[in-house]
Amino acid sequence: MEQRILVIEDNPDISRVVQYELEQAGYEALTAPDGISGLTLAREEHPDLVILDLGLPDLDGAEVTRRLRKNSSMPIIILTAMDALDRKVALLEAGADDYMTKPFYPEELVARVKVQLRHQQHGDVIRVGDLEIHPQKRLCYFKGHEVRLSPREFDLLTFLARQPGRVYSRAEIEREVWSGDLPSNSNVVDVHMANMRSKLRDLDGYGLIRTVRGIGYALKTP
């Protein structure tokens, strides 16, 4: 499954170049010309990473960063024409993971995207509301209480938690969590979902995993 990158950039020339370089690198690239449409796309498409221009026509880039951070831990790379240290520090404190000063080399931007996605894949902690997952330690907590999951349940919940709100079909889940190694009529995904729901429900986590009838499953956003 292609990783999805959202580019929020009001300069159409820069947007086209970045989109082209990302697609050449094997990513799916979405573009938005301003902050409002970018936030809407982020909410609807659940990208794996956002590239965000600081100087948008409607919203300040730091404000867009803060709004994105409310619902997702996805990496955010800022593009800025300003080189002031205090401004860069403010952006990082607002939730940005990296920044690049314009003008920049598109190849370097793609390299930084790859680094951030690797960090996201192997990061120390994933937090979604009251849910906290430690991938390296293979520990999961909900409201401070440990959730005792089987190895496959842990992989499944971690997969959903990396993009909360995004609906995954059973086929996508089977491919990513089981490497597609399941018979076509298997209900193993549904069984694991039911087991996880039961364990989370015991800790007042009812409704955390959402079923979208006829499509698949999603982890509910805070």
TrEMBL record:
UniProt feature coiled coil, ranges = none
| Record feature DNA-binding region, as residue ranges | 123-221
- Keyword line: Cytoplasm, DNA-binding, Phosphoprotein, Transcription, Transcription regulation, Two-component regulatory system
Where would I find the Response regulatory domain in this sequence? 4-117
Question: Is rRNA-binding among this UniProt entry's keywords?
Answer: no
Q: Cite the InterPro entries for this sequence.
A: CheY-like_superfamily, OmpR/PhoB-type_DNA-bd, Sig_transdc_resp-reg_receiver, WalR-like, WH-like_DNA-bd_sf
The molecular function terms in GO held by this entry are: cis-regulatory region sequence-specific DNA binding; identical protein binding; phosphorelay response regulator activity
Q: Which residues carry this modification: 4-aspartylphosphate?
A: D53
What are its GO biological-process terms? positive regulation of DNA-templated transcription
Q: Where in the cell is it found?
A: Cytoplasm
Occurrences of domain OmpR/PhoB-type (ranges): 123-221
The question of whether Cell inner membrane is a record keyword is answered with: no
Pfam families, A to Z: Response_reg, Trans_reg_C
Q: Which GO terms describe its cellular component?
A: cytosol; protein-DNA complex
The main location class comes to cytoplasm
Q: PANTHER family given for it?
A: REGULATOR OF RPOS
Q: What is this protein called?
A: Two component transcriptional regulator, winged helix family
